[in-house]
Amino acid sequence: MKFDRETKRELGYVTLGTLLLAAVEIGVFFAVGKYTADVLYGAILSAAAGILNAFLLAVTVTRAMSYPPEEEAAAKNLLKLSLISRRLFLLAVLAAGVLLFNWISTLVTSVFPYVIFHIRKPVVMREAAASGIGAEETEEPAEAGGEESETKGSEEDGTDEN
């Protein structure tokens, strides 16, 4: 699957931002004297799951956008199935991380992709407005970060990273 330049860039931002925030989190645990290997493992597991979730979202949205207009229902079904599958995956990974590793580290790290997406969203919107892209296309580059609006019926304009 070939991603466009903007999708690759947003995936990079989510990946880098998640890893940097996880490193800061581990540093905080170390600074307060609560660092253990379980903190590291929980953060790694949760960060990897969040980054994989963002990648799978980008794959799904890219694939759904390649459907012809007459197959819009099939594209929407693909997006819904992807949302359910990715949420179940994240739930399973977080449950395993909470049970096996430091639960605080696991859960805190799981929100980092959301944080990065929400920080990037206004920047993406400004860039799209400056380049003359319409509102319906504006949020496409941010797909690496989310799907919140899927509860409204579409993965194309929201967030759900973890």
Write up what this structure looks like.
The two termini are 23 Å apart. The protein has one domain. The protein has six helices and no strands. Helix 1 packs antiparallel against helix 2 (37-65) and helix 3 runs antiparallel to helix 4 (103-110). The protein is flat. With 162 residues, it is an all-alpha fold. It is 72% helix and 0% strand. The model is unreliable at 135-158 (pLDDT under 50). It has helices at residues 5-31, 37-65, 72-100, 103-110, 112-131, 135-138.
Summarize this, please?
By secondary structure, this protein is mostly helical.
Features:
single chain; 162 residues; mainly alpha
Task: Walk me through the topology.
Elements: H1 5-31, H2 37-65, H3 72-100, H4 103-110, H5 112-131, H6 135-138
User: Kindly state the mean pLDDT as a whole number?
Assistant: 81
The Rg value, from CA coordinates, equals 17 Å
Helix-strand topology string: HHHHHH
Oligomer: single chain
Q: Describe the global form.
A: flat
